[in-house]
Amino acid sequence: MAWELASESSEQRDIYLDSVALNLHGFYSGLERIFELIARHVDCDLPRGENWHSVLLWRVARDKEEIRPAVISEKSASLLDELRRFRHLVRNVYAVNLVPRKIEPLVSPLPELWQLLQAELMAFAEFLEDLARASEGKVYDEDWNVDGQGS
């Protein structure tokens, strides 16, 4: 609804554009938080540096050898990369500078992207559940083998 109102020319258009922009910002930021948790707790390798946001996004779109499968597809990463760039813009400009025709390409693929992301994130959650089940009751220590029996 806010998108339709933001697309119309009205005296309150900036309010609706701001609403859409902040929702896109929040959507990407929430996903990035999930990716950060995966990088920190599964990969044990959170990217650093000036472009860490981009590195993180593309890293979760790839298998981490001997650790985990890709969290999301490259298709999802490509669409999310546009939202990541837009988030940077939202953080650094005022709503009066937002242009509806430039935001529309970010809004229109969201329903399909959300369905894709839900499936990908659920598949990754299943991977984590399988990993947890496989490691239940196993001790990892240099004096013990993986079955919990002393050497």
What does this structure look like?
The chain is an all-alpha fold and 151 residues long. It has one domain (2-135). The chain is 66% helix and 0% strand. The chain contains six helices and no strands. It has helices at 2-7, 13-43, 52-60, 74-92, 100-107, 110-135. The protein is elongated, with a radius of gyration of 20 Å. The N and C termini lie far apart (65 Å).
Brief synopsis:
The protein is mainly α. The protein has helices at 2-7, 13-43, 52-60, 74-92, 100-107, 110-135. The chain has one domain (2-135).
List the helices and strands and how they pair.
Elements: H1 2-7, H2 13-43, H3 52-60, H4 74-92, H5 100-107, H6 110-135
List keywords for this structure.
mainly alpha; 151 residues; 0% strand
**N-to-C span:** 65 Å
Q: Give the helix proportion (percent range).
A: 55-70%
Give the overall shape: elongated
Mean pLDDT: 85
The structural class is: mainly alpha
Q: Using DSSP, what is the number of strands?
A: 0
Helical stretch tally: 6
- Residues in β-strands, percent: under 5%
Biggest sheet layout: none
Order of helices and strands: HHHHHH
Computed Rg: 20 Å
Question: pLDDT under 50 segments (min length 5)?
Answer: none
Number of domains: 1
